[in-house]
Write a structure and sequence with these properties.
By secondary structure, the protein is α+β, with helices and mostly antiparallel strands. It has three helices and six strands.
Length: 108
């Protein structure tokens, strides 16, 4: 059902000065991500951060921002189609590349 709804909302009509034009919405970006390949890596939970980053970058070379984030850190809630946040069990001062992945890395 959610995928069907996403397909319906993939494009949004904008009316400006009596001209109607199509613009891709955030949902359109999400659908493009799904079409491009893998969008989540549940198998990386429990692995080291550096290993997870290498796997993500190898499987999705279009991802330009695979970034380490300590668990509990504040992050923005914007959606970015070429970013994966790797949530790690470690403090900000720790060696995050060796910290353990605490949540499923997903595009966004």
């Amino acid at each position: 059902m959610a995928l069907m709804m996403a397909l319906l909302l993939a494009k949004t009509k904008f009316v400006t000065n009596d001209v109607v034009r199509d613009e891709p919405s955030v949902m359109g970006s999400f659908i493009d991500d799904l079409a491009a390949g893998k969008s989540a890596w549940p198998e990386l939970v429990g692995k080291k951060g550096g290993e997870a980053k290498a796997v993500i970058e190898r499987e999705r070379p279009d991802i330009t921002g695979a970034i380490f984030v300590p668990q509990g850190a504040f992050v923005t809630d914007d959606y970015c189609c070429n970013r994966v946040r790797i949530i790690l069990d470690g403090s900000a001062g720790a060696d995050l590349a060796n910290a353990i992945v605490a949540a499923v890395p997903v595009i966004g």
